[in-house]
Amino acid sequence: MSKLIATAAIRGSHKLILNAEQMLEKALAEKGKDFVFEFPDTAFYLPMIYAMTGFAVKTLADMKVALGMAKEMLHPEPEEHIWKPYLGEALDSGMATLFAEEIILALKYINGLEPAVDLGTGYIYNGFITDTIQRNLGIQLVDGRMPGFAAIIGAAPDEDLAVKIVREIQEKNILTFLSGQSRDKNGNLTCVTKQLLNKKVELGWDTYIVPLGPDTEHTLYALDWSVRASLIFGGKKPGDFKTHLKYTKDRVFAFALVLGDLDDIKWSTGAGAINMGYPAVCDTEIPVIHPTGVCIYEEVDRELDHNKIVQRAIEVRGLKIIVEKPPIPVAYGPAFEGERIRKEDMFIEFGGQRSPAFEWARTRELDEIEDGKVIIVGTDVEERYKKGGLMPLGIVVDVAGRKMQKDFESIIERKLHHNINEAQGLWHMGQRDIVWMRINNQAFKDGITLEHLGVIHNTLTHNRFRSIVDKVQVTLYLDEKDILAVQEEARKAYKERDKRLAGMIDESVDTFYSCLLCQSFAPSHVCVISPERLGLCGAYNWLDTKAAFEIDPTGGNQPILKGEAIDSVKGRWTGVDEYLKKNSAGKVETLNLYTIIDNPMTSCGCFECIISIIPEANGVMLVQRGHTGMTPAGMKFSTLAGTVGGGTQNPGFMGIGVNFITSKKFLYADGGIKRIVWMTKSLKERIGEDFKKRAEEEGVPDILDKIADETVAEDSEKLLEYLTKAGHPALEMEPMF
Ligand code: SF4
Ligand code: ZN
User: Fold this and answer.
1) Any residues with Cβ below 6 Å from ligand 1, and which?
2) In terms of CB atoms within 10 Å, which of 18, 191, 214, 593 comes out highest?
């Protein structure tokens, strides 16, 4: 029986290789062997082939070599092989399939056929997944917002079932990739993407549902994505196929749901996915395979009941899902965070400069509040709410707990945004006294009341801050006069907090915190987080990590006692060095927090921004994730990211969080912001106000105008011209090294 399936997989593999060969011959004849190809925004060439073999495919001629490797994998004579992993016949055919599919998709890009477009609806599929998205998702994976990934291949028996299956996955915050087609129960050839589009389900990265393309081959994009996790976050070397396969199996929690009948291509693509450690669950009568004997397909399972298929897949892959949903009548989870509510769909809104509104988390004594209570203060509240439109709203979240500290208020308050946004049909923006909230018509019809807003904050504040919060009580103010009065108090509290925060500098504390969250991907990387330097992903500052440690003392954020200062200019302490020796898998001996030249911090892969030295200009440049243009360092962000990541120290290059740029400790030992000779326009805009303040403090109030951006220079020659004309101070400073 397994023989039968293996035969199908091998047959599929041969078909794909033949197809790739024909397409390649045509392209070679038309464009010549030196024709250069790159998938959009990646530093990893054809990522699957590159990861497995170390061979960088750059031209059509290279594709021919790579296809040769795929053919070799199917060849019966091991001695002659260029590259062969010897995983066993069917599994090798699976890997051969992935190589062939990668080449086919590359050729389709060359022919302008990718990303695919659905002719019926005009819908544009995602196509290749860029390094930028890859790295952005990395952080969601490590902080647990996203427990894993599902690839759905084919079509559900009908549209309602398609929605049901996808919603069930979405509620568990698992990212869904869609590809392939099959026949629905009426015998029509279709795909889940179309089924969801017909049901008006919002698709895209924001909602965790990403259609890759209409063919089974498009599944490769998801596998390509996951193998890059091993290269980027794991720091595994190209060509070391065994460690890549182990990494994806151990660290990337992916599975496939194969809906509808299986053909040869699906079997062979499945064999490729199984190579990477991703099991598949099918909804058809495939032969049942028992995990006895040497049967490679023990990773394939079946579940004919569509109500159970998601649960089954989760069990098979061994995913741990903890979603504690508040008791409200709409769906809930981070997958709904990206939803927008347009005016036409809006039932009611609060704030947004249209009505007074604020949010405030406040510490109380344990005996002052009643846990779980929602208090609503106002006149004719029900009637006013039911009319819809616009309402003022003040929300006070009172928390009490033996381990609660005033410093944690801002952290709890910042989560209020996510608390609301994660409810389906509810939308939230801003914070403090500039909040803006909307509830859409559907959520109102489903029964969302004002009280539910309080219920959401109660449940989630408990869930998120379990060990510091013992009691939570929420008060909603709905009359303008009350709101304005309490808002005054809240504003005083905000101000006090800001003052305290501004006074918090590295010298004023004796403890820094580590963040080890990215070690699941980059085992040697440690973010050292001080009051004046946040984590490089931008998601954690010193207060966050302090609170995180209180909440979970054995978690990913640990205190680092600074110890003695060895070099207070470069930012080096005995305690930090000791900590790193123990916790960086022996990779980092010593660290300087305030320089890029001498033992700078390592980078995992999820940095918001990269600093790179420009030796010719005696300074540094800054480029943020998402910038696709060239930089004066001679590399694009994606290429730079490839050299910076992986948890090693790279003098001259470093990943940072954007807010670090305006810290007084930014490259303090190297000359600070005066060293910045180039940064992207969008970065300039993003940090504008704070940067101006810093520039004044440094005595260079007009430096922002002297810093070049992509509109004046994308290479070092133009850059130097500009800097000279502008009289940039870096040109006069001491040499950087
Ligand atoms: Fe990863 Fe550093 Fe962010 Fe922690 S702070 S999640 S280690 S990048
Ligand atoms: Zn990271």
Assistant:
1) 139, 142-143, 515, 517-518, 527, 535-537, 539-540, 604, 606
2) 191
Between the alpha carbon of residue 356 and those of residues 395, 430, 478, 480, 550, the distances in Å are: 11, 13, 10, 7, 34
Phi–psi pair at 461, nearest 5 degrees:
-65, -40
Q: What is the pLDDT of residues 547-562, one digit of tens each?
A: 888 877 887 899 999 9
CA of 12 to the centre of ligand 1 (A): 42
Q: Which residue has the tokens 């808002």?
A: 487
Q: Which residue has the tokens 């016949």?
A: 89
- The residue whose CA has the least distance to atom 1 of ligand 1 is 518
Strands 471-477, 374-377: pairing kind: parallel
Tens digit of pLDDT for each residue in 169-212? 988 888 999 999 999 999 999 999 999 999 999 999 888 999 99
Q: Structural domain boundaries of the chain?
A: 334-502, 507-732
CA of 135 to the centre of ligand 1 (A): 12
Residue 657 Cα, ligand 2 centroid: separation in angstroms? Answer: 11
Q: What is the CATH code for 507-732?
A: 3.40.1470.10
Length of the chain: 737
pLDDT at 320: 65
Task: Dump pLDDT digits (tens) for 565-614.
Answer: 999 999 999 999 999 999 998 899 999 999 999 999 999 888 889 999 99
Class of domain 334-502: alpha beta
